[in-house]
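It would be a great kindness if you could assist me with a short task in structural biology. The full record is reproduced below for your convenience:
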Amino acid sequence: MNKRLKVILVIILALGLIITGCSTGTNQDPWIGKPAPDFQFQNLEGQLTSLSDLQGKPVLINFWAVRCPPCRMEMPYLQQVYDGWSGKGLVFLAINNGESPSQIGEFMQSQGFSFPVLLDTRVNIAQEYNIQYIPTTFFIDKNGIIQDMKVGAFSSKEEIEKSLNKIIP
């Protein structure tokens, strides 16, 4: 009986995380219409650049982690967006929160994801963006202004594209 109760509790917890994402809060309004905070980032290959270097291009920033079930759930949709919209000028930045490059690389390879991943091993960028829950996604126009934001996982590619239409003419 004790074993059965543990299994039921684990299932309930997992369903709760999947349904709500890793968040319950959605205080988005303060970010919309404001300049995106600049930051430097390093990709899995060790190349360093900054958000301000991308001025003039629309940018999608997604904060995520391998350890986050809702993050992993939305990854196929993000891959579809990366495949379909990168050729239209979209810059796609998937920022991993606090995990090792080897862990991230193994996950990306095992799942067949090819979009670029940036490292935020000390969670400095997440702090700059006041990330309290993951996944969190920002949509930044070519002038560096945040036009939309979502806290929680996307449920479809089309949901992501609605926000992309705000930053890509």
Q: What stands out?
A: Confidence is low (pLDDT under 50) at residues 17-21, 23-27. The radius of gyration is 16 Å. The first strand starts at residue 40 and ends at 43.
